[in-house]
Amino acid sequence: MSSSAASKAQPETVALFVSDVHLQASLPRTTKAFFKFLRQHARYAKQLYLLGDLFEYWAGDDDIDDPYNKQVLQAIRQVSDAGVAVYWIAGNRDFLVGTQFARDAGVTLLPDPFMISIAGRQIALAHGDAQCTDDVEYMAFRAKVRQQGWQQEFLAMPLMQRKAIIANLRAGSREAQRSKSCEIMDVNPEAIASLFAATGASMLIHGHTHRPACHQYERDKIRYVLPDWDCDSESPRGGWLAIDATGAASSHDVDGVQR
């Protein structure tokens, strides 16, 4: 069989899943790697799911005209314009992405969690932070900032004031993480079990924890944890999950190599 024939025999890629890219202008190699992913891989899938923390932070849709943010938006829009259905679940860094960004980028905003079906497989999607229930301090903060009233009040502030507040919050978060155990900042097993039970899913895909893995449970349940991205460090990392038309899942590193 020729190489072209072998390539044609491969099942079609239905969906790609990526999270925790933490895009920011100060990480040009990470940005370049993500744009390469969009051009060389996402454009050839039927669906692309962005599962939170695509940006290091998002202060509000009135920051769309920032040159760097506009560049990211346009790169995503090119994928959407190519006929790919692009979906977005908010992360803990970019939950303020709103309807203007969604319209301009050509993405559909989804609630967390969200259920999809591929090849008869029921798949639950989440960012993952809502399942880190052992981190009581974070869960209280999350509950506050996800309230509509808090968001309306925050977004009414001048953009530069919001960015200053976010910078202080990020600094405080980094300091707090130094005193927290790895277990506290990971998902809670009971929260994961509850999500499986509530959704009836056989597969769960999430990010947030920066601990890429494939966890197999009894009764044919499986949980994929997506990697975070950082191609500006000495040891570049990143990647995504793909699901093909048969329902088979495969993990790929930042260069597209299947792991």
Describe the structure.
The protein has 259 residues and is α/β, with parallel strands linked by helices. It has one domain (11-253): Purple Acid Phosphatase, chain A, domain 2, CATH 3.60.21. 35% of the residues lie in helices and 21% in strands. It is built from eight helices and eleven strands. The protein has helices at residues 3-9, 28-40, 67-81, 99-105, 136-145, 148-155, 159-177, 189-199, and strands at residues 13-18, 47-50, 85-89, 107-110, 114-118, 121-125, 203-206, 213-217, 221-225, 239-244, 249-253. The strands form two sheets. It has a six-stranded mixed sheet with strand order 4-3-2-1-10-11. Helix 2 (28-40) packs parallel to helix 3. The protein is globular, with a radius of gyration of 18 Å. Residues 1-7 have low confidence and may be disordered.
Distance between the termini: 25 Å
Largest sheet: 6 strands, mixed
How many structural domains?
1
At the fourth CATH level, what is the homologous superfamily? Answer: Metallo-dependent phosphatases
H/E element string? HEHEHEHEEEHHHHEEEEE
How many helix segments? 8
Spatial shape: globular
**CATH C-level name:** Alpha Beta
Which runs of at least 5 residues are low in confidence (pLDDT < 50)? 1-7
- Global Rg: 18 Å
Category from helices, strands and their pairing: alpha/beta
CATH topology: Purple Acid Phosphatase, chain A, domain 2
Strand order of the largest sheet: 4-3-2-1-10-11
Beta-strand content bin: 15-25%
Portion in helices:
25-40%
Named at the architecture level, the CATH assignment is 4-Layer Sandwich
Whole-number mean pLDDT: 93
Number of strands: 11
